Protein backbone atom coordinates (compact mmCIF):
# COMPACT_ATOMS: atom_id res chain seq x y z
CA UNK A 1 0.00 0.00 0.00
CA UNK A 2 1.22 3.46 -0.93
CA UNK A 3 -1.11 6.41 -0.58
CA UNK A 4 -0.82 10.16 -0.20
CA UNK A 5 -2.40 12.59 2.18
CA UNK A 6 -2.30 16.39 2.14
CA UNK A 7 -0.57 16.67 5.49
CA UNK A 8 1.08 14.77 8.31
CA UNK A 9 -1.78 15.84 10.56
CA UNK A 10 -4.32 14.27 8.17
CA UNK A 11 -2.35 11.03 7.82
CA UNK A 12 -1.82 10.60 11.56
CA UNK A 13 -5.44 11.50 12.27
CA UNK A 14 -6.71 8.81 9.91
CA UNK A 15 -4.33 6.23 11.35
CA UNK A 16 -5.28 7.12 14.93
CA UNK A 17 -8.98 6.91 14.04
CA UNK A 18 -8.31 3.54 12.36
CA UNK A 19 -9.62 4.79 9.01
CA UNK A 20 -6.26 4.08 7.38
CA UNK A 21 -5.21 0.52 8.13
CA UNK A 22 -2.05 -1.32 7.18
CA UNK A 23 0.20 1.73 7.36
CA UNK A 24 3.71 1.33 8.73
CA UNK A 25 5.56 4.46 7.58
CA UNK A 26 4.81 8.10 6.90
CA UNK A 27 7.27 10.03 4.73
CA UNK A 28 7.40 13.84 4.93
CA UNK A 29 9.47 16.43 3.08
CA UNK A 30 12.77 17.03 4.89
CA UNK A 31 12.78 20.82 4.50
CA UNK A 32 9.21 21.02 5.81
CA UNK A 33 10.16 18.85 8.79
CA UNK A 34 13.23 20.90 9.69
CA UNK A 35 11.08 24.06 9.52
CA UNK A 36 8.91 22.81 12.39
CA UNK A 37 9.66 23.82 15.96
CA UNK A 38 11.21 21.23 18.26
CA UNK A 39 7.91 21.02 20.15
CA UNK A 40 5.97 20.33 16.94
CA UNK A 41 8.47 17.66 15.89
CA UNK A 42 8.27 15.99 19.30
CA UNK A 43 4.47 16.05 19.19
CA UNK A 44 4.40 14.33 15.82
CA UNK A 45 7.04 11.80 16.91
CA UNK A 46 5.02 10.94 20.02
CA UNK A 47 1.83 10.45 18.02
CA UNK A 48 3.64 8.28 15.46
CA UNK A 49 5.25 6.19 18.22
CA UNK A 50 1.88 5.65 19.91
CA UNK A 51 0.40 4.56 16.57
CA UNK A 52 3.43 2.32 15.90
CA UNK A 53 4.24 4.23 12.72
CA UNK A 54 7.76 4.99 11.48
CA UNK A 55 8.20 8.66 10.68
CA UNK A 56 10.85 9.50 8.08
CA UNK A 57 11.84 12.53 6.01
CA UNK A 58 12.97 12.62 2.40
CA UNK A 59 14.42 15.67 0.67
CA UNK A 60 13.26 14.29 -2.69
CA UNK A 61 9.59 14.17 -1.66
CA UNK A 62 7.35 17.09 -2.56
CA UNK A 63 6.27 19.34 0.28
CA UNK A 64 2.72 19.32 -1.10
CA UNK A 65 1.82 15.94 0.42
CA UNK A 66 2.97 13.13 2.70
CA UNK A 67 3.31 9.52 1.61
CA UNK A 68 1.86 6.68 3.67
CA UNK A 69 3.26 3.20 3.08
CA UNK A 70 2.49 -0.28 4.29
CA UNK A 71 4.92 -2.95 5.41
CA UNK A 72 4.79 -4.70 2.04
CA UNK A 73 6.53 -1.87 0.13
CA UNK A 74 10.10 -3.06 0.55
CA UNK A 75 13.12 -1.21 1.91
CA UNK A 76 13.20 2.57 2.35
CA UNK A 77 14.66 4.79 -0.35
CA UNK A 78 18.28 5.88 0.05
CA UNK A 79 17.16 9.51 0.43
CA UNK A 80 14.94 8.78 3.47
CA UNK A 81 16.08 9.60 7.00
CA UNK A 82 14.44 8.74 10.33
CA UNK A 83 13.23 11.86 12.15
Descriptive labels:
83 residues; alpha+beta; 3 helices
SSE diagram, text form:
Blueprint (H helix, E strand, L loop, with lengths): L1 E4 L2 H9 L6 E7 H5 L3 H13 L3 E5 L7 E5 L9 E3 L1
Parallel strand pairs: 2-3
Antiparallel strand pairs: 1-4, 2-4, 3-5
Q: Which whole number gives the mean pLDDT?
A: 92
The stretches of 5 or more residues where confidence is low (pLDDT under 50) are: none
**β-sheet strand percentage:** 25-35%
N→C terminal distance: 22 Å
Individual helix count: 3
Overall geometry comes to globular
Side by side, the strands of the main sheet go: 1-4-2-3-5
Largest sheet: 5 strands, mixed
In short:
This protein is of the alpha+beta class and 83 residues long. 33% of the residues lie in helices and 29% in strands.
Amino acid sequence: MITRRDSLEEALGEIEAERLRGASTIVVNLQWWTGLSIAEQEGYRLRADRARIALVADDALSSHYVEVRGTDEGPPLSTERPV
